[in-house]
Amino acid sequence: MWTVWSxxxxxxCARRTKIVQQSLAAFVARASRARRATVAPRSNPSGNPVTxxxxxxxxxxxxxxKSPRPKGAVRxxxxxxQDRRLRMIESKRATILQAALDxxxxxxxxxxxxDQVATQADVSKTNLLYYFGxxxxxxxxxxxxxxxxWLQPLQAFSVEQDPVEAIRNYLRVKLExxxxxxxxxRLFCMEIMQGAPLLLGELQxxxxxxxxxxxxxxxxxxxxxxxxxxxPHHLIFSLWATTQHYADFRVQVxxxxxxxxxxxxxxxxxxxxxxxxxxxxxxxx
Length: 285
Prior knowledge:
about 280 residues; mainly alpha; Arc Repressor Mutant, subunit A; Tetracycline Repressor, domain 2; two-stranded antiparallel ribbon; 11 helices; 2 strands; about 5% strand
């Protein structure tokens, strides 16, 4: 059975058909624009752009990748890095020792605290204890260092030398040490006067062995007729006493003479006097 539409129904149907066609056309246009956005433009031989080629992502540059460090592997510092670290350690250690020497020579072991040393050395107390485990260890290291410096001139004595010239030079070097390192001499003197509780081992072994070796050298000079027949031990004691007096009793010397070894003229006067006193006593008669 056929249905007969009225004119108004025909108009409604036509309008709906047009709306569907417009919607479909808009969808097709949007799809076309989206496709063109993903296509890289290129030119054909005629010079017109062609947009039917897909975009190709750029190639990644091939670089040599570092092989991963094995888990648990320890990084070994270079030789230059190790050398810099050793120099830094030695520099810091020397700074601490110098600060300790200054304080120990003025206030003694018991009158000096690690806090004072750390402050003067411009380090923390924790850092100081990294280098020296205790105040006694620091004090002993200071004493050992100054003993090495103080005894170095005596080590130069040898049988092959002319004894008069060797003793003459020794007096000059020892007097220079008293002038340039009075703190070391005062600290050593202070330790000896207290019975050397922390230095006795050094005195009984290294110092004793060195002195005995140089006693043998002096005795060889005496046996060869190059020196008067004197007791070698007492010669060494006299050399120490006469030169170190100007450091250990610096205040007394300045109070009496009005000068110290820092005065060049007084230094030369003192040296010539000591050389005359000692050398005139040891020359062969």
